[in-house]
Amino acid sequence: MKIAIGADHAGVRLKDGIIAVIHSLGHEVEDFGCHCSDSVDYPDYALPVCEKVASGEADRGVLICGTGIGMSIAANKIPGIRCALVHDLFSAKATREHNDSNVLAMGERVIGPGVAEDIVRIWLETEFSGGERHVGRVSKVQALEEKYSLHP
């Protein structure tokens, strides 16, 4: 798989460790930054990651900021993105199985690197379970997106 990744200044250290984990799992990574600890704006890094995922140029995306909240809010404004903010292993698995999430958001100030690495492993290795119930729910989310999109 090709994984797009991005972080703001509050997530850059965790991002660098997560890139190593993704590579160790045999996936390709496209890093959209940031690459410094100077204050930057998280939407500027969420956008290129999510554009790659929404266009199909990347299979999934990973976003990291201080809490993961800002990144997940920005990501979910982009049509075609189902970004899940995850800080535990159960949610990492459930969001793939039940929601077919295609972008993962995490907060460097909220979780440690060991847990974050485990979350990424689980999230990348878990497939969407499909099934009528979950497919129907994801379809309803997509219908909401279409209904309220400013650019159909």
Primary descriptors:
6 helices; 5-stranded parallel sheet; alpha/beta; Ribose 5-phosphate Isomerase B, Chain: A; globular; 152 residues; 16% strand; 5 strands
Oligomeric composition of the shown chains: single chain
Number of strands: 5
Mean pLDDT: 95
User: For the CA atoms, what is the radius of gyration?
Assistant: 14 Å
CATH topology: Ribose 5-phosphate Isomerase B, Chain: A
The total domain count is 1
Characterization of this structure:
By secondary structure, the chain is an alpha/beta fold. It has helices at residues 12-24, 43-55, 69-75, 89-99, 113-125, 131-148, and strands spanning 2-7, 28-31, 60-65, 83-85, 103-107. α1 (12-24) packs across α5 (113-125) and α4 (89-99) packs parallel to α5 (113-125). The protein is globular, with a radius of gyration of 14 Å. It starts with a strand and ends with a helix. The mean pLDDT is 95.
Briefly say what this structure is.
The chain has 152 residues and is α/β, with parallel strands linked by helices. It is 49% helix and 16% strand. It has helices at 12-24, 43-55, 69-75, 89-99, 113-125, 131-148; strands spanning 2-7, 28-31, 60-65, 83-85, 103-107.
